[in-house]
Amino acid sequence: MTVRLLSSQEILSESEDRAHMRSALALARRGLGHVWPNPTVGCVIVKDGRIVGRGVTAAGGRPHAEAVALAQAGMMAQGATAYVTLEPCAHKSKRGPDCAGALIAAGVRRVVSALIDPDPRTSGKGFAKLQAAGLHVESGLLAKEAADMNAGFLMRINEGRPLITLKLATSLDGRIATHTGHSQWITGPVARSRAHLLRAENDGIVVGIQTALRDDPSLTCRLPGLQDRSPVRIVFDSRLRLPLTRNLIATAKETPTWMVCLEAQGENHYRAEALRECGVHLFEVGPDENGRPDMEEALQKLAEHGMTRLLIEGGGQLAASLLQADLVDRLAWFRAPIVIGGDGVPGAVGYGVALLEEANRFQVQKSISCGDDVLTLYQRIQ
């Protein structure tokens, strides 16, 4: 086991470093879904082998994790080591000072970070500022885990779109409803609770117009203690067909509701105005080759408005459009132990795959038992 001699004469083993970083990552996970447009960051401050401060990015992105942890540590931060899941920011804003400067001012002697921040306002500048002030800086510890945690933020910065997770709840043969459209409930209560947790961990939850019309969903998180973690509700409704009396519109002033549509013209212009008066935020985008809202443009606009993680909940046409454009990054597939048959409604409608090499490919990350059902998490093969 290797050890490092610190400037404060404190000896820490590599295993201890990893343990503290894992604690910081566990803290960061708490922020998923409610810190956008910021990344979710965890910070643990350790002095003489004892944790003296913990912090996670607060709702809405401020205060940052480092500020929370430093406030908890107080004078004990002097000479301590700070474990941070992302490079401390180097840019000040109207909402607070930069975290690199705060760590320096608090007297922290060593900073261990998992990832460099891709945001051009900080990228490398935070580390440079810390080193210039004489702090010992290390980067790269548990980088893969940290990148997975903030995959949505990284994608928004690097590719200009949110991370897309397609959630499916199907029979063993991939059906989301019978041929009559009956679908409640394919999966059991344990699986449905797990699905609500997925909602809480994403910035936005997306459905197509057919799902919105058929199910009249509320699309909120209804887990006890997490009711305030409901994501932004987003409907793809090309021609603004959703009636003003439906749940999503009637409650738009209580729970943020966005709608992606084609440019509103003619009678739709008045529909658009009525929706805005109800509190709905509209995103007008150009058409794709099928006359539907262009998916890449829509995702770009959603990212520009802060979205880093989107959960796609339905229906089959929306799923097919995203798969066809190779925009699905992760799958969260709930399977119930039933068989519906080929005349049932598929999880994704046909989208023209002719050869196997043209099919979207994913690899299994893990499987989780949810009562009688099974949730399998997949990641796209690049």
Name its key features.
9-stranded mixed sheet, alpha/beta, disordered N terminus, single chain, 382 residues
Structural write-up:
46% of the residues are buried. Helix content is 29%, strand content 25%. Strand 1 and strand 2 form a beta hairpin. Mean pLDDT is 91; it is low at 1-11. The protein has a 9-stranded mixed beta sheet with strand order 13-12-11-10-14-8-15-18-17, with helices on both faces. A 5-stranded mixed beta sheet has the order 4-3-5-6-7, with helices on both faces. Strands 1-2 form a two-stranded antiparallel ribbon. It contains 12 helices and 18 strands. It has helices spanning 14-29, 65-73, 99-105, 125-132, 143-149, 151-159, 189-200, 209-215, 247-250, 267-277, 295-304, 316-324; strands spanning 3-5, 11-13, 42-47, 50-56, 81-84, 110-113, 136-139, 163-170, 175-177, 204-208, 232-236, 257-262, 280-285, 309-314, 330-335, 345-346, 362-370, 373-380. It is α/β, with parallel strands linked by helices.
Radius of gyration: 23 Å
- Identify the strand order in the major beta sheet: 13-12-11-10-14-8-15-18-17
Tally of strands: 18
| Share in helix | 25-40%
**Coarse shape:** globular
Class computed from helices, strands and strand pairing: alpha/beta
Helical segment tally?
Answer: 12
Q: What order do the SSEs take from the amino end to the carboxyl end, as H and E? A: EEHEEHEHEHEHHEEHEHEHEHEHEHEEEE
Biggest beta sheet summary: 9 strands, mixed
Strand content: 15-25%
Regions with pLDDT < 50 over 5+ consecutive residues? 1-11
Give the end-to-end Cα distance, rounded to a whole number of Å: 35 Å
Mean pLDDT: 91
